[in-house]
Input
Amino acid sequence: MTKTLLENIESIPALPESVQEVERIYQDPESTFEDMQKAIEKDPLLTANILRIVNSPAYGMKSNITSIKQAISLLGKDAVRTFVLTSAVDSNFEIDLSPYNMTKEEFALACDRQLALTINWLIRKESKNLGVLAPAAFLVDIGRVIIAKTLVEDGKVDIIQKALLAGKDIASAEKTACGAQTTDVTATLFHRWGLDPEIVHIIRYSDDPEGTGPDEQRMAAELKAVRETVLPNGEITDESIATAKETIEEFGLDMDAYENALEKVLNS
Output
């Protein structure tokens, strides 16, 4: 990583205390739903943000969710903890992705769709993995925001612009410009924040699931398929779905559950 990129990662503030408290509770095997509920409700802004996310059409709630207790009861601690982390990112980042010809709204759409697809795909049969995959799916591309800032400061926006115009691999262009790709930067930031090491590991290997061990490979492949489905600007195309399905078949993932989840996301 270049000096500027490392400095920009270091400049990101620590997670808010309310978020850190929720994370401590989540990691404590002796904690209860009520412990998490109380920690979230101490922060009115955090509470409001979570209820806004939960009531998004992407999660298909049959009635309006009006309390954190309801949210945890219906979606579980894993999903709600992810919403807490997403809220923290919203408050810690000034998002400017103009070097990628992307708007803040497009980036937000991509993050939201990746999270919704992951939760709808795995919540029934692989809910135990959501503690890792849900935050990874929503936050995996936050490194791109830091890279964009670095590209502007180092005067290397043209490297990404040329790659985009030529339809080339953006990750390779990022490495050329600042010595790291999006997943590397996100994993480094999460390590600095002290988040679950498994989340950091899965993000690092989401570009290359075969590079990790058998226990982590399935989750890395699931994250890879989610990122392939949802393009960086939030679009989902026939081509992106076909690419994701190749990954799903290659790693023996649950195709039926994926297609059901995809339908929910596309109809939301």
User: Anything to note?
Assistant: The two ends are 39 Å apart (CA to CA). The domain at 3-267 is CATH 1.10.3210.10 (Hypothetical protein af1432). The longest helix spans residues 68-92.
